[in-house]
Amino acid sequence: MSLREFLVNTKNNNAFLYYLWSKNQQKKGLDNLAHFSDKEAIEKLYLNYSGKLPNLVQPTTFSEKMQWLKLNYHNPLMTICADKVEVREYLKRKGYEQLLNNVHAVYDKAADFNAATLPEKFVLKASHGSGWNLICTDKRKINWWIWKKIMNVWLNNNIFWPGREWPYKNMKPRLVVEEFLKDVSGSLMDFKFFCFNGQVRFIQANKGRDTNNHAQNFYDLDWNILPFGKDLEPRPDIPIDAPTKLVEMITIAKDLSSEFPFVRVDFYEVEGQIIFGEMTFYPKSGLPDFTPPEYDGILGEYLSLPQENQYS
Questions:
Q1: Exposed, middle or buried by CB within 10 Å (0-12, 13-18, 19+), for 223?
Q2: How far is Cα 120 from Cα 142, in angstroms, rounded to an integer?
Q3: Which secondary structure element, helix H or strand E, spans residue 246, and what is its range?
Q4: pLDDT reported for residue 5
Q5: CATH architecture for residues 185-281
């Protein structure tokens, strides 16, 4: 395990350290918002991550096109679909209410959160966040005093500030509590469908995420492993079974993504039933993390950009 992985794991397994980290992220985001324009913030983020500036005039790679979309493509439907509460109405309108996980509660304020009214197991999420969540398997073992402080940080933070991910800019911050789910793996595997201009091009699947033998593989639509990864090298030595409802998932992902130049649509499969996860417009803020690096350019060819400022 690398030092970075050790520090991340330590932070994620200690609520007080996670609170301090969250406060620091909030402060850095506010500083970023105060001192940099959208274009400057995007260029700074990209440069700090990759050591080079993105071409925002004639973008060709996937990551450059992601940054271009942040600046130039502002479809109001994106804000609805990225919101973990509002997206439920979008799915209902599209005829997919049966894919929605059960919601126990939605809160506007952390002070309103009351664990006593909730089941023993549940998942707490910030409706306007990414990775801002708590998987609770025994509410009696949680220090709710520190977690309410964390919830307050979530509610006063915004993903738009550091990376200028436009859909989150004016999103209403809320807390949502969903039913705890578990699949045949003993945890909950998600299947991430990368959709370009309404077509599913490939699927990401993870296995052993919280172990030392973590596999993150990408597959084509026939579930053949692909020769690239994202953050992690592919692990052909660790096969990941396709979901039994793969074909149906592909069809639904195509439909849900049809309004957008790019979106990643995530599903779970629990007891043979498809459960909707979320829609993500800029995975890892659209930074160049495909490996080998040349796939940033190869996959960029899949994405046709819309007319500039068509919703501005």
A1: middle
A2: 11
A3: helix 246-257
A4: 59
A5: 2-Layer Sandwich (3.30)
